[in-house]
Automatic annotation (TrEMBL):
Lineage: Eukaryota, Viridiplantae, Streptophyta, Embryophyta, Tracheophyta
Pfam families: Ferritin_2 (PF13668)
InterPro entries membership: Pigment-catalase-like
Keyword Methyltransferase: no
Signal peptide start and end residues: 1-25
Species name: Rhynchospora pubera
Protein name (Swiss-Prot/TrEMBL): Desiccation-related protein PCC13-62
Keywords: Signal
């Protein structure tokens, strides 16, 4: 009898010791449905990209100096550098950068995540995107870091894709915790996109030097390219659109993109990968992710 009691006590303390090895956050992570974990991990790819681009643009360095633990030893991004920004735009971009740091931390507190993937945020890569959007090579090549307008145009390329991904993921989530997190992330990503579009809309008729092409035309071309790569119809719109595509068909101005009812567009992970890889194929890495995105969903499409 004494032996049985001793064994029971030993088992209890062993269980308690094992349980102590798990933090409350880890226990919370493993309680999420597997599909929720996959859908929460996937946007880390976009959050890493935004954090690095905004940190480098505003501060001249990235996560490795600012919050190295969040990068988890992932490779240093290719081509990041300080942008030539006026004080207002630099301040806005700096706020975006720290918001993205918070997003990375929030997701990683909820799911295990993965180290920063290899990213290409070089001027040469942005120039390639813009050339593809216009279907001819700009001369000189577009440089996102050259000035504030160029940097805002380059910023137009990135956050909106993640925004549509959160919209697409939202109805597929099962747990209240995952839904709350995505709703909170979507709110801030949407606000960032609205600020970027608002600053660009203020300059919609301005010519981007030295190309003699307006800011509005840049946004339309970039949106058209993303629609083409995504291969699922119109889920992207520039700042100035035909009347038939404007809100209630009554305005050419399109400071915030939305469908026929001004509801935000959604995208699936496959559509997002087609766009950020720049290949139009979710199975062929490239673009911002030379070695591919990470997480279960992205790895699935590579096999």
């Amino acid at each position: 009898m004494v032996a049985k009691i001793s064994a029971a006590i030993f088992a209890f303390f062993l269980f308690t010791a094992l349980l102590a090895n798990f933090t409350s956050a880890q226990l919370h992570k493993i309680s999420l449905p597997e599909s929720d974990v996959d859908l929460l991990e996937f946007p880390l790819n976009l959050e890493y990209l935004e954090a690095e681009f905004f940190l480098w643009g505003s501060l001249g360095h990235g996560l490795d100096k600012e919050v190295p633990q969040l990068a988890e030893g992932g490779p240093t991004p290719i081509g990041g550098r300080k942008a030539n920004l006026d004080p207002l735009i630099n301040d806005v971009v700096l706020q975006f950068a720290y918001q993205e740091v918070g997003h990375l931390r929030a997701i990683k507190k909820t799911v295990k995540g993965f180290p920063r993937p290899q990213l290409d945020i070089s001027a040469a890569h942005f120039a390639k995107i813009v050339d593809e959007a216009f279907e001819f090579k700009l001369n000189p090549p577009f440089d996102p870091y050259a000035n504030g307008v160029n940097y805002l145009i380059a910023s137009y390329i990135i956050p909106y894709v993640g925004l549509t991904g959160y919209v697409g993921a939202s109805p597929k989530l099962q747990s209240a915790k995952a839904k709350r997190l995505v709703a909170g992330l979507l709110g801030v990503e949407s606000a960032q996109d609205a600020v970027i579009r608002g600053l660009l809309y203020e300059r919609a008729g301005q010519k981007v030097l030295p190309y003699n092409i307006t800011v509005a035309e840049f946004t339309s071309r970039i949106s058209n390219l993303r629609n083409k790569l995504g291969k699922r119809g119109v889920k992207d719109e520039g700042l100035v659109v035909p009347l038939a595509e404007g809100p209630e068909h009554k305005t050419h101005g399109n400071v915030i993109a939305g469908d026929v009812n001004s509801v935000a567009y959604d995208r699936t992970p496959a559509q997002i990968l087609r766009i950020v890889y720049g290949t139009g194929n979710e199975s062929i890495p490239g673009g911002f992710y030379p070695k591919g995105a990470d997480g279960h969903i992205a790895r699935y499409y590579r096999h």
